[in-house]
Amino acid sequence: MSSSEQAAARVSLRERISVVLVEPQSPGNVGMVCRAMKNMGLRELRIVKGCRLDHPEACKFAVSAKDLLEEALVFPSLEEALADTELTVATTRRHGKYRQEIFTPPEIVGKIGANLSGNRVALVFGREDNGLTTDELSLCRWHATIPTSEEYGSLNLAQAVLVFCYELFKGLGEWSSEREGRGLAGTSDLESLFGQMEHTLLRIGFLNPQNPAHLMRSLRRIFSRAELDEREVAILRGMMTQIDWAADQFRGKKGR
Known about the structure:
This protein is of the alpha/beta class. It is built from 11 helices and 7 strands. The longest helix is centred in the C-terminal third of the chain and has 17 residues, at about 185-205. About 35% of the residues are buried.
């Protein structure tokens, strides 16, 4: 592949990557995010509710990236913002029971590069004060964090976006449009699977009806690690349908 063809492949790759901001609070931060994205060759910004995008501060800090600000897509929910994407990355600085297997930016770039062909990418960033909720994290395939000093680990939103965008910019040079990859199931397909799975597992008494999310979050992580494609999702949904049919004879949870 010639150098010009390689450059075209890298541009095409970056066009498959969206930055998603969930309920950003500062118009100035949104403007700086646009500037950081344009510095690193990314173009699509998605906003889930949040502050006004036509605020003077947003325009002021976007500088020469006002076009990204003007073209930003606004969604009423994170689930809708991710519906057409397959490789979703939730960023977080907190660890915990439902925040395990957290990758660094270079590790995430490696995973994206290995699965990019035929897939779209979304990098998701949370609110400036509270980040992403556990439920929002569960919507994403992978979790990532930027290692920082224990003394003060909080990064400005635009700074965090810039670090991830830089790692993508640096890592894309090794990606080739000729590299083969699996087409993974999209977020909307996975959410349909998880919705059907929760319904079925509640019906057969496997989930606690008072708190089904407790086990469902663990199941989501298991299937995220599996990196399911569309055929595999269809097999699992067919299995859930068969379980539903068999559950007509259900007489209560085993051992009761």
